[in-house]
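The protein record reproduced below.
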Amino acid sequence: MLIFLGVGLYFTKRASKDTGEFFLSGRNLPWWLAGTSMVATTFSSDTPLYITGLIRSEGIYENWQWWCFIFSGMLSVFFFARLWRRLGVVTDVELIEMRYSGRSASILRGFKSVYFSLIIHTIIKAQVILAMVKILDVTLGWGKWESIVIATLITLAYATMSGYWGVVSTDFVQFILAMVGSITLAVIAVTKAGGMDFITTHVSAKTLSFFPPMNEGFFSTVFMTFLGYVGLSWWSKYSSDGGGVIVQRMASCRNEKESLIATFYFNVANYGLRTWPWIIAALASLIIYPTATDHEAVYPRMVIELLPVGIKGLMLASFFAAFMSTLSTYLNLSSAYFVNDFYKPFVRKDASEKHYISVSRWITIIFSIATGIVTFYVTSIVGVFKFLIAFGSGTGLVYIIRWFWWRVNAWSEISAMIASTIMSTIVYTNAYLSIQPFYVKLFLIISVSTIVWITVTFISHPVEKEKLVLFYKKTLPGGPGWGPVRKLVGEVHGGAQLAEQVMQWLNGSLFVIAITIGLGKAVLGMYISAGIWFSAAVITAVNIIRKNFNRRGNG
């Protein structure tokens, strides 16, 4: 903690130059640092607890609850990484007034900046802090309030002082420390449980399955929930075209090519590499703690009861590292949304950079206090994660389509957000709907929201032609949906070929899935199956390299 606080002090002067330094590190990050920061941010103290809960309650296959986002991750790589970098935005919300026109665009930008910074990010930060609260309760016996305050203060201090520079610099060290801790615990837990052979022969076949069992039929709740994940979740979520955290890192890269490589590296590391230490430890816990009922608390319990002194301290430090990397990112991004997309355009347009940085720091502190209060009343990590998926559903499709269809306007997004929020509230508060399976809730929210925003799109006025032409020339998004605009522009070279992008998206998705499952099969001793999955990974990797990474230049 003192080291990271020192990093914050070191970068304070540099981060205080202007908002470009405070929120994007001057757009000069190499791909490996931006990509590692992406992985570190999505790897928090709540992640191993969340995955332990999934494994112990259902099985390996339940990880499709988050593995499904491989598909949207590959969309970010092959469709959106270059587009976001070309736009030169600070946040993804800034896109709105580049893509749309009129008062509706201004209202939408201001509303989304508050919506994400104060509502969505508060939920995410509460989920992250709750996990650390559970860890500190089990390991040190701290109460909820003192855990919230103590766990947050150092992160708040260096994130407030050093901005994005402090975030990405500490992310690199924090990710390494967190991975060392998770691998160490996995090895010791497997040894305590009697080895992998003993685990695989004494844990049920259902728990070890990578896909949901079909013994109850195609329309069983288990299989339909799986279809809900892989068929609905990934494209319907509010971050379907990258999302704030990933976009911020794309935008901070040196050029388009490094943005693409950083995002690709993130997806491979995020799903293929970091998954298995947690799953292995969770499988071992089924042997060591067969009767435990608080599944999420089993992970920190293993830290206390299985690890020797010294290693135990390292593991607690790794928890803090994972926690701090995620929290610092959302602290910085929340203030970026508020200052760049609300305060600067609507409250003080012509203030100095020093003033905006000062406001950024104060708003970070205020949002942290609000998050602490929310965290005190939250109880379940998995419950928060599922709610967040459902709450943001219904908006993801419009965020994708806006890049490829000229007719989408600000009212499309506004109506999608309103419909999604109303439907989420109804689904989770109505006595009958609240007890329905997750996939039913998801389908209701998505279907109603989609019908609403498509209807609104056709009955509202389109974006001004001048705005559409400027956006098209700047991004060259490609696809048939820009036909009328392309006629206005004339022949423009450099637009992406949509069919080729789709093929690369499929290749990329299969590659990451194959790496993820192949590694898991190998760890569990299923070597023939692992070989098949690795072969698929090699074939898709060759296609990806041939089509993308052997090209010269930044495009």
